[in-house]
Design goal:
Blueprint lengths: L4 E5 L2 E4 L2 H49 L4 E4 L2 E10 L7 H10 L6 E3 L3 E3 L1 H13 L13 E8 L1
Antiparallel strand pairs: 1-2, 3-4, 4-7, 5-6
């Protein structure tokens, strides 16, 4: 019976037995199966997170507001509607967003890391401040501003 050869590095070969090759093949199969399983589970988790987000930010707040409910108890937990704020700057819009911030007196929000950027929490706080001061409508779309209700169980 001939011994199979395994290419390790270009131009270098090692002889291994059939049992050794079977062991490696078994481990590689397990690795491949785990990679596929993780990919599927991450996809399922993304779907679950999307469904939860829709319930928290759309379905439940809409229904509660339609019925004039601001808070309630559910299974011993307090359910409240809170206003959620967010904003983001895409790589594509970064230069335009930074220019707008500088031109409109908000240049202090920009920090220098490896590149110029606005920290996500700083941007979120600024979007909240703008909405609370009645200036939410003046935030350019390049910041992807969002203000909406979110249901939270505590």
């Amino acid at each position: 019976m001939s011994t199979p050869e395994l290419d390790l590095v270009e131009g270098e070969q090692v002889e291994i037995t059939g049992d050794q090759l079977a062991s490696i093949t078994k481990l590689l199969s397990e690795m491949e199966n785990l990679q596929d399983l993780i990919e599927n589970e991450e996809s399922n988790l993304a779907l679950l997170k999307r469904r939860l987000w829709l319930l928290q930010t759309q379905s439940i707040p809409t229904m509660m507001r339609e019925h004039g409910i601001e808070s309630m108890k559910f299974k011993g937990k307090e359910l409240e509607l809170k206003i959620e704020y967010s904003g983001s700057i895409t790589q594509k819009n970064a230069d335009e967003a930074h220019a707008w911030l500088n031109e409109n007196g908000y240049g202090a929000l920009i920090k220098e890391f490896k590149t110029l950027k606005v920290h996500p929490q700083t941007l979120k706080a600024w979007v909240k401040e703008m909405f609370n001061n009645g200036n939410g409508a003046g935030i350019p779309d390049i910041f992807n501003p969002y203000a909406g209700y979110k249901a939270e169980l505590k």
